[in-house]
Amino acid sequence: GQNIDQPTEMTATEGAIVQINCTYQTSGFNGLFWYQQHAGEAPTFLSYNVLDGLEEKGRFSSFLSRSKGYSYLLLKELQMKDSASYLCAVQNDYKLSFGAGTTVTVRA
Amino acid sequence: DAGVTQSPTHLIKTRGQQVTLRCSPISGHKSVSWYQQVLGQGPQFIFQYYEKEERGRGNFPDRFSARQFPNYSSELNVNALLLGDSALYLCASGVGEGRNEQYFGPGTRLTVT
Question: DSSP code of A82?
Answer without folding.
Answer: G
